[in-house]
Write a structure and sequence with these properties.
The protein has three helices and 26 strands. It has 362 residues and is mainly beta. The protein has a five-stranded mixed sheet, with no helix packed on it. A five-stranded mixed sheet has the order 11-10-16-13-14, with no helix packed on it. Strands 17, 18, 19, 22 and 23 form a five-stranded antiparallel sheet that branches.
Length: 362
Amino acid sequence: ATFLIPVYGEMPSSISPDPARGNCSYLASANRKYEYSVLCDSPTLTSSENAAVYFSQAVFPASELAFQLSVEHSYGIMGLEWRWYGEDWKALSTNSTTNLSVPVDFSVGTSHILLVRGVADYDHTDSDKKCNAYVLCAVVYVDVVEPPKKEIVIDFGHGSERFVLSQGSGFTIPAREEENFIGWVGSDGSFLPNEAVIKVSEDCTYTALFADFEQLEGASLVFLENGAHLRFYAAMENEALERLNALVSDLSVSCTMKRQGSDPVTMAAVPYQQMQALGTTWQSFCASTEVITGENVADTYSASFDICFSYSDGSSFSRRAFGTASSRSASMVAAAALADSRADYSADVISGLEQVAALSQK
């Protein structure tokens, strides 16, 4: 084939400059039809103008490679896509600034290439701009390396067990079957439930925490300004309670009260007083009934106490106090108190007990 290029007189010897000076993103015959910039914040800080960022990154097997990439483009960026070299492109759920977690499950000693591209924000059916639909944003040379070993110590309170595991691996803390087991206290500041699944990141010791939480038998009559009330009690070992309060911020003790013939009502139990029992100090909690009147003086009330809190992994704990739920009526408590010759009640208390006993005779 023969091509004839016409030459006119007095033509300049150099190529005419771009009349749009490169500012027209797709019509001008500029060297570059668009401008863009890439900023990578994670896993390494790097940036580039009109070119992808290139870097190497070491990862552990079955770990995650966190990505945070920002892209600015003449057309705008409607989203990012990524792929391992040789695989299909996968769209991200967010657009130009995103946190991309890439699962890495390749074997130790292998290398892989991760690609990230931006999708230009325009109608891709526009034939004039179709060649500029995508822009390469990042090329990461990923080397899979052997993770370091970490030691996990499980302290049962009467013995311990050691596990040597790879950093980044998963581990299930063994279960404890004791009724008074509360949780695992980690030397890293964590507080975890039975059989918690952790991701090994550092040497750590997990110590079992036990706490006795007991329902106290019976009830008492208390006399307040608004009248007489039945009061029920539970108690927890004080040392364990103080440790638990230091570990969690949402510890609560509640009481579920049920009056004979009525629906149960749950209320907050409040700290009452400390007491000595079984060679240690206990913190008691109490909850009181409504005012006792002639209509409810013979009705039986039952009460059960529960302790609730959240672990550091977001899961919750709820346990009922050990022992049988207490059931008492005001008339029963008043009669027993007045019949107790060993009791040393004040005159005001005796008067109140007699008033409650009188109500039961009506």
